[in-house]
Amino acid sequence: MSATLDQLTDWVRRFAAEVHEHRDELTRLDAAIGDADHGSNLDRGMTAVVAALDAEPQPSAAALFKKVGMTLVSTVGGASGPLYGTLFLRVATSAGEVTELDGPAFAKALRAGLEGVVARGKAEAGDKTMYDALSPAVDALDAALADGDPLAEALRAAAAAAAAGRDATIPLVARKGRASYLGERSAGHQDPGATSVTMLVAAAADALA
Amino acid sequence: MKKLINDPADVVAEALRGMDAAHPELRVDHANRIVYRADAPVQGKVGLISGGGSGHEPMHGGFVGPGMLDAACAGEVFTSPVPDQMVEATKNVDGGAGVLHIVKNYTGDVMNFEMAAELAAAETGVDVLSVVTDDDVAVQDSLYTAGRRGVGVTVLLEKIVGAAADEGRDLAAVAAVARKVNGQGRSMGMALTSCTVPAAGQPTFDLPDDQMEIGIGIHGEPGRRRVPVAPAREIAAMLVEPVLADLDFTGPDGVICFVNGMGGTPLLELYLMYNEVAALLDKAGVRIARSLVGPYITSLEMAGCSVTLLRCDDELIRLWDAPVRTPGLRWGA
C-alpha cells in the first residue's frame, strides 16, 4: 500500500485538528516546565498551514511538505517553529516530486525529518524533548516495515512507540530547551514537544489507515 | 485574568500600534512586527538588530533610536520572532557596513536567528554577525542545559554597542565590543509573583503568598529554588553573592550596577533594593562607576527584580555615557 497525496494532505490536516483540540493541554504541559505557549504557538502555525492548503492545493509530496515547513517557520516562532519547520522541510526533500509514497519512502522521509530535528536542536535520547517520542516511532516504523507489515499497520506500531516514548519523558530531567533551566525540578512532568509529536505520528496512522 | 487588553490574540499588534502613534521618531512595519528608527538605514553605520518575545518592554522596541538599535523584531508574548522578520529587518537597516544580530540565549531565539542569518546571507548578501548574550548565573552552564540565559546584560550591551556603531567602527569591531560586554557582565534575578501570559489566561506558575523564587529568568518560568519571603537585605545578598562569586568585579574602573524591575515592582522598592545592593558591593570592594535603576527588561506584570553587574573600563564607560535617544533610554541627546 502507498500513501496518496490526498492521504498525506489529510495527515497534515488531522495533525492540525489534533493540535487545535489539545492546545490547552499542550500549553498546560509547557507551563509546568517551560513558558506556557506550546499549544497556542503550534495551533497558530497549523491553522496557517491549513489556510495555505485550502487556498492552494499542492501538486506533490515535496510541495506539500515544503509549504507546511515554510509556513511553520514563518508563523510559529519559539523553538517549535524551527524544529517542526525543519522536520517538514527535510521530509519534503526526502519525499521528492511524487504523488505517492510507498512504505519505505514514507519511512525514509520521516527519518530525514527526525535527522533535521537533531541537526537543528542538537537533542539526544533522554534529553526530554520531541526526539524521545519521534526517534522510537521512526525505529518502530522501520522495524515493522522490515517485518513485512503494510504501511498502515507499521504506522500504528510507530504511534504506539511514540506514545511510549512520550510517557517515558515524565521522569526525565530536561537537558535541552527552557525546561533545562529547572534542572531536577523538570522531572515528573511530561514533555510538551514529545506530546505534540506523538499527535503527529498518531495522525499519520489515522490518515493512512 | 485582569489586564488592559481587548482580545488576547491582538495584544502584540495593538501595542505596536500604540508605540507607532506615541513615537513619530520610530517607524513600525505592522505586517512584519518590526520597529525601526525612522531614518534607517544609516549609511556607513553598522546596523544593529535585536528581537525577542514580547512581554519584556521596553526591551527591545523601546531601545530603537539613535545611539542604540536600528530595528527590533517583536515576537508573540514570550515567543521568539520568526526568521522572516529578522531577514526583512536585516535588509532594511543595512547601510553598507553590515548588520549585527543581538540574540538572547534561549533555544527558540537562537534557532530562529540562526535560520535568519542563513537566509539573509543567501537572499541579500548582507554581512551578518551574531552575538548571543548569556549572563544569567542562576543557570549552570554545562553540557546538560541550554546554557545560561540572556537577561540584564542585554540592555547594557544594546546601549554600549549602539554607541560603538555610532563611532563608525566596522562590523567585526562592533561585534567584538558586544562579546566583551557579554563576557564581563553577570546577572541574577528573583520573583515575588508569577505572571500571566494573555493567551494562557492564568499565572504561569503558582507561588504562595509567603514564598519567592530565586534564580528566575524573564519568561515567568520557575527559578532554581523556592524559599520563604525574606527582608530586602537578605534578598539582595541572595542575588549579589552568586554574581560576585562568578566573576571578579573589584577592578579599579568599577562596574555599571543595574537593578532591574521585573514589571510589577515599584521604583520605591527598586531604589530600596539598590541601596542594599550598593552596601553589599561596597563591603565587597566593588566600586560603582555608573548605575541604572528601573524596569528595562521585564516579565509582564511579574513582581521582583534582578541585579546585573558589568565590569567596566574607560572604553565601556565612555560608550555608556554617549548620547542615546530611544523611548526606553534617553540621555545626552
From TrEMBL, chain A:
Keyword annotations of the record: Kinase, Transferase
EC number, as in UniProt: 2.7.1.121
Domain DhaL: residue ranges: 6-206
Glycoprotein in keyword set: no
MF annotations from Gene Ontology: phosphoenolpyruvate-glycerone phosphotransferase activity
Broad class of enzyme this protein falls into: transferase
Cited Pfam families: Dak2
Descriptive protein name: Dihydroxyacetone kinase subunit DhaL
Organism: Pseudonocardia benzenivorans
Chain's gene name: dhaL
TrEMBL record, chain B:
Protein name: phosphoenolpyruvate--glycerone phosphotransferase
MF GO annotations: glycerone kinase activity; phosphoenolpyruvate-glycerone phosphotransferase activity
GO BP, sorted A to Z: glycerol catabolic process
Pathway listed: Polyol metabolism; glycerol degradation
InterPro entries attached to this UniProt entry: DhaK_1, DhaK_dom, Dihydroxyacetone_Kinase
UniProtKB keywords: Glycerol metabolism, Kinase, Transferase
EC annotation from Swiss-Prot or TrEMBL: 2.7.1.121
Assembly information from the UniProt record: Homodimer. The dihydroxyacetone kinase complex is composed of a homodimer of DhaM, a homodimer of DhaK and the subunit DhaL.
GO cellular component: cytosol
TM stretches of this protein: none
Lineage: superkingdom: Bacteria
Domain DhaK: 7-331
Pfam families (UniProt xref): Dak1
PROSITE patterns listed in its UniProt record: DHAK
Catalyzed reactions per annotation: dihydroxyacetone + phosphoenolpyruvate = dihydroxyacetone phosphate + pyruvate
